# Entry
Amino acid sequence: KPNEDAKDLCQSFFLWLFEQPLLQEFTPEQGTFRAYLKGVLRKFTANFERARAAEKRGGEARILPLEVEFASIDRLLPRAGEGDPEEVLDRAWVQEVTQQALERTRRFFEQSNRAPYWAAFDRYVLHPMEDKPTYQSVAQQLGITATDVRNYLSVVRDRLSQDLRAEVAETVTDAAQFEAEWAALFPRKHS
# Structure
């Protein structure tokens, strides 16, 4: 869809979603929330296109003001050449799950009085001050040893992996769904 049409479609979808009991009707036993949401979105899009075609033939549209600002919606909309909208949604879902896991991990280290662990990870992985930081350069910034940096990174990566798995587990009901969702969201690269 062109950008403006996609924005209209997104706003209409969220308005429709909030007016319907669809979120309460989701049952995890039938699949993942992501898959359910994609199915609901497909159904809505088909109905929206039919209604839009009917409107062009003289149907009336009910206009409701939408008071919610969807500033971050632009990052979810596919740009020219970005690919299939379902792939865009999947990428956005992975980003959101990852952000939630990162936040959970950050809170864990800050609340357990191990903020230097998170600081090393943040400076080495998330927000490096150099193009390619070294353990030594991060160690100098934090006033610790390069060995500490290496050890801290290992501990934070292990915790992040646990938190990432916990975030995915919150969207499914059993181990089989978890494994399928994990494989879909984080496929292993084969060389």
Summary: Confidence is low (pLDDT under 50) at residues 61-78. DSSP finds eight helices and no strands in the chain. Residues 12 and 48 are 9 Å apart (CA to CA). The radius of gyration is 22 Å.
